[in-house]
């Protein structure tokens, strides 16, 4: 599979602390809106690619003054959907993605990204986000570029993360671990494109 991203609104705003409904100590929390947020995945193989979505459960970003304190996002792996197939082929692929060959959804229903670093990019609103991504109970560091915009107490974050699925024990169809796959080989890297929306709340 090639794009996974989960996930992510951790990206943020070294200048948005006062945007949330003010509190005396300057602290604010931005809550991710699952209905307005979207995560799209793309996985590629020798003979083509598939795309789909994963729903956002929840997430939040904590800001103190002008400094980011904490950011995280949780994704619902049971919600995995394919958007480029229909009928039986769609059900077969989704079922396979949920199985132990891929994401073992029954035992690992959530993927989580926790941001630990935010470095300003070359342009306004651009950041390099660094954090830890957990899939199937396995955690690795992940960095990716993202853009962030803050308007009237609402934060929007957009970016793409590229992930090596084999680091998370998703080895099915990988040329690293299986020989003679031919045109059945699936590329190890997958992508996740995210469009996240969070709103400010006082704490």
Would you mind describing this structure in some detail?
The chain is mainly beta and 203 residues long. 6% of the residues lie in helices and 54% in strands. The protein has one helix at residues 87-98, and strands spanning 27-32, 38-45, 48-64, 67-82, 110-120, 126-135, 138-151, 154-164, 186-201. Strands 1, 2, 3, 4, 5, 6, 7, 8 and 9 form a nine-stranded antiparallel beta sheet that branches. A hairpin with a 2-residue loop joins strand 3 (48-64) and strand 4 (67-82). It is elongated and about 60 Å long. The N and C termini lie far apart (39 Å). Mean pLDDT is 83; it is low at 1-24.
Outline:
This protein is mainly beta and 203 residues long. It has one helix at residues 87-98, and strands at 27-32, 38-45, 48-64, 67-82, 110-120, 126-135, 138-151, 154-164, 186-201.
Notable characteristics:
9 strands; mainly beta; elongated; disordered N terminus; nine-stranded antiparallel beta sheet; single chain; 54% strand; 203 residues; 6% helix
Q: Gyration radius, to the nearest Å?
A: 18 Å
Pattern of helices and strands: EEEEHEEEEE
What is the structural class? mainly beta
pLDDT below 50 for ≥5 consecutive residues: which ranges? 1-24
Mean pLDDT: 83
What is the topological layout?
Elements: E1 27-32, E2 38-45, E3 48-64, E4 67-82, H1 87-98, E5 110-120, E6 126-135, E7 138-151, E8 154-164, E9 186-201
Antiparallel strand pairs: 1-3, 1-9, 2-3, 2-9, 3-4, 4-5, 5-6, 6-7, 7-8, 8-9
């Amino acid at each position: 599979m090639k794009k996974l991203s989960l996930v992510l609104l951790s990206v943020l705003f070294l200048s948005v602390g006062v945007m949330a409904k003010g509190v005396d100590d300057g602290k604010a929390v931005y809550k991710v809106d699952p209905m307005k947020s979207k995560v799209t995945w793309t996985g590629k193989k020798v003979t083509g690619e598939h795309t789909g979505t994963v729903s956002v459960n929840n997430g939040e970003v904590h800001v103190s003054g002008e400094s980011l304190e904490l950011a995280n996002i949780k994704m619902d792996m049971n919600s995995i959907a394919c958007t480029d197939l229909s009928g039986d082929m769609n059900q077969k692929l989704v079922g396979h993605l949920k199985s132990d060959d891929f994401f073992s959804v029954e035992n690992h229903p959530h993927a989580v990204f926790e941001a630990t670093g935010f470095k300003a990019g070359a342009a306004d609103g651009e950041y390099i986000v660094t954090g830890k991504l957990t899939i199937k109970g396995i955690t690795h560091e992940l960095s990716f570029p993202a853009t962030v915009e803050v308007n009237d107490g609402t934060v929007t974050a957009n970016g793409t993360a590229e992930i090596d699925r084999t680091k998370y024990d998703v080895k099915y169809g990988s040329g690293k671990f299986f020989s003679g796959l031919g045109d059945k080989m699936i590329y190890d890297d997958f992508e996740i494109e995210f469009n996240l929306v969070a709103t400010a709340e006082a704490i």
